[in-house]
Amino acid sequence: MSACKSLTKTLIAVVAIALALLQSCSNVSINLPPITESATGNHQPGRVIWHDLLTPDLNAAKQFYGELFGWQFKTVPMFQGVSNSGSYTLILLNGNPIGGLIDTTKLRRDVNLTQWVSVFASADIEATVKRVQQQQGTVYTAPTSLGKRGEIAIVADSQGALFAVLQTQDGDPPESEAALGGFLWNELWTEDVSLANTFYRDLFNYQEQAIVLKGSETYKYFSTNNKPRAAVVKNPIPDLDPTWVTFLRVENPEDIVARVPALGGEVLLDVQNNPIGGKLAIIRDPSGAGFVIQTWEYKSWN
Q1: Are 123 and 165 in contact (CB under 8 A)?
Q2: What is the pLDDT of residue 3?
Q3: Is pLDDT of 292 > 80?
Q4: What was the pLDDT predicted at 6?
Q5: Taking the C-alpha atoms of 140, 141, 146 and 147 in order, what is their torsion angle to the nearest 10 degrees?
Q6: How far apart are CA 27 and CA 215, in angstroms?
Q7: What angle in degrees, to the nearest 10, is found between the helix axes of 193-204 and 125-134?
Q8: What is the pLDDT of residue 162?
């Protein structure tokens, strides 16, 4: 939900090129910590297991998200083999890592590259990347080592929505209910819903499920092993590129939106009922990255 189509294309190109150039240097080795503290040895293809925020203002992001959601932050080295290596900021919730912040001023200072990036699990990243290509998607970076974290590839679907796939070295985090302030859900907002459904169903071997809403409407979503994973919906915002949208779980959305302006953000859609349950609001952070806050009581989706 950041700016416009030309900037989205620039964002993809710059991030991909930067990662590729860094990895191609013989004296540079990217080494990020695992996304789970204990090895699980378990891979869950199609599950969103991580989120990274690209932002030009780390301090503003830390203040904004820390105040609203109780996040803590920890800076860790990003590269090995070079002096004055760059850094990566872990997002912690209740002491547990849930995502990361990447300083885009190290990439481009003249363009706002801010965006949340959803990272999907893969058990075989080479095969996943090959399927992206076979389905007319774009591979911006081939599988790239992140050291202890595993291997990552930056890709886009056949309509241009950016996402990443990660084959973790030690396995994916255990499944659990999203804590308050944690990542709850992911929706793809796109133009051709049918085309996107086919792309992701074939990419991750998803099963398609549906919730019957009031009247004859349904909310369709993907699952694996009877676990909801993500959904594809018609893009509700004119001139917005196809994009993966991140949902954060909250208890009191009215309180959250009331505090957003003072922290430098913007409320794009005030609190309203979500047809599938709970309440939601759409927010933009101080640098322009959009996301959704959502109340949710865990129950059967059937």
Answers
A1: no
A2: 42
A3: yes
A4: 43
A5: 170
A6: 61
A7: 150
A8: 93
DSSP letters along 204-227, please?
Answer: HTPEEEEEE-STT-EEEEEEETTE
pTM: 0.91
Contact 89, 74 (CB under 8 A): yes
Pick from 252, 213, 250, 205: nearest CA to 229: 205
CA separation for the pair 184, 117 (Å, rounded): 14
Least confident segment among 68-82, 161-175, 218-232, 280-294: 68-82
Q: How many angstroms from the chain centroid is the CA of residue 169?
A: 19
Structural contact between residues 141 and 156, judged by C-beta atoms closer than 8 angstroms: no
DSSP for residue 56 = S
Question: Residue 75 CB: number of other CB atoms within 10 A?
Answer: 11
Q: How confident is the model at residue 25 (pLDDT cuts 50, 70, 90)?
A: very low
Domains annotated for the chain, with CATH where assigned, are: 5-29+42-168 (3.10.180.10), 183-294 (3.10.180.10)
Query: β-strands 183-190, 227-234: how paired?
Result: parallel
Contact present, 117 and 52 (Cβ < 8 Å):
yes
> 301 or 35, which is more confident?
35
155 in Cβ contact with 137 (< 8 Å):
yes
Query: 37 vs 99, which has greater pLDDT?
Result: 99
Q: Which residue has the tokens 């993907």?
A: 222
